[in-house]
Amino acid sequence: MDRLSLSSNMRFLAALLTCAFASAQHPDFSGAWEPYRGGPKADQKLAAPPATPLMLKPEYAKPYEARRAAEAASAQRGEPLANTGTVCIPYGMPTMMSIATYPIEIIQTPKQITIITEAFSEVRRVFMDQPPSKIDDVAPGFYGRSTGRWEGDTLVVETVGVKPSIAGYRGMPHSEQMRITERMHLVAPDYLHDDVTLQDPVVLEKPVTFTYAYKRLPGYEMVEFVCDNNREFVDEKGVVHMKVTK
To answer: Quick one: pLDDT at residue 83?
Structure first.
C-alpha cells in the first residue's frame, strides 16, 4: 500500500471514529414512549417523584380552587364540565407531554429534537444549541418556542411563548411570562424522566416542579389521532352531553 492510500484510509478511519464518538456523547431518546404511572409495587427510581406544591398568588388561587371544586361536583353528578379534549382544542405545553396512556414519539437529530404525541397528533420542536428565546420575541402559541442543549446525559429544554389561554399544569392559569424548563434523562435503559419546572412571576408564588415518567415501547408504530367530535356538545353552563339522534 502506498503512502497516499494509507493516508486516505487513515483519514477515513478517523472520520468514522469522530462520528461514532459524537453519536456516543449523548443518550438516544429516539422512539416511542408510554407514560409510566408506577404503582404501589413499582420501583421508586422508575416512577415519577412527588410534585412540589402548586402555590398560586391569592388573586389567582381563589378562582382556580373554585373551578376545581365545580369540576369535582359536576363530575360527581355525572355532568362533567367541558375541557380542552372535549372541545377538540390541542392541549399544548406542558400538558401534551402526558395524556392518559397515549404514547409520545421522539425523533432525535443533532440540530432538532421533535416530539409527537399520539393524542391529538400534537407536534413540538426543540431547536438545539441555540440561545434561549426572549419571551417578547416569540409569538404566543400552543407550544411556544423550545431551545435545547445537552448537559452531560441530560437534555435541558427551555420553552417560552405559551399563550395564557392554554391550560397549564393541573389546569392552572398562567401569564405570557411563564417559562418551562425541562430536564430529560434516562433513569434506567428503558425509562425516561422529564423533570419540569414552571416559573411565572405573575401567577405563581414560587416555581412548581413535577416529573413526567415514561417507559420505552420498542417497535411501536404511532397511530393517527384526529379529534373529530360529532358525539358530544357543550351546553350554556359548560356541561358536556352526548348527542341523541332519532
So the answer is: 67
pLDDT along the chain (246 residues), means of 10: 54 48 76 90 87 97 91 78 74 95 97 97 97 93 97 98 94 96 97 98 98 97 83 56 52
All cell numbers assigned to 245:
339522534
Helix residue ranges, H only, the chain: 3-24, 58-76
E strands, 88-236, are 104-108, 112-117, 123-128, 145-151, 154-160, 179-188, 191-199, 208-216, 232-234
What nine digits make up the cell of 151? 448537559
Q: Which three cell numbers stand for residue 154?
A: 441530560
126: nearest Cα among 59, 183, 54: 183
Give the span between the Cα atoms of 139 and 162, in whole angstroms.
9
* Closest to 177 in 3D by CA, of 195, 194, 157, 159: 159
The domain made up of 27-77+89-226 has a fold known as Lipocalin (2.40.128)
Q: How far apart are the C-alpha atoms of 13 and 54, rounded to whole Å?
A: 54
The burial class, CB within 10 Å (0-12 / 13-18 / 19+), for 137 is exposed
Structure-block grid coordinates of residue 3? 503512502
For the chain, give every domain's residue range.
Answer: 27-77+89-226
Where do we find the cell 494509507? 6
**The amino acid at 150:** W
**pTM (predicted TM-score):** 0.82
Cβ within 8 Å of residue 131, ≥6 positions away: 147
* Cβ atoms of 161 and 140 closer than 8 Å: yes
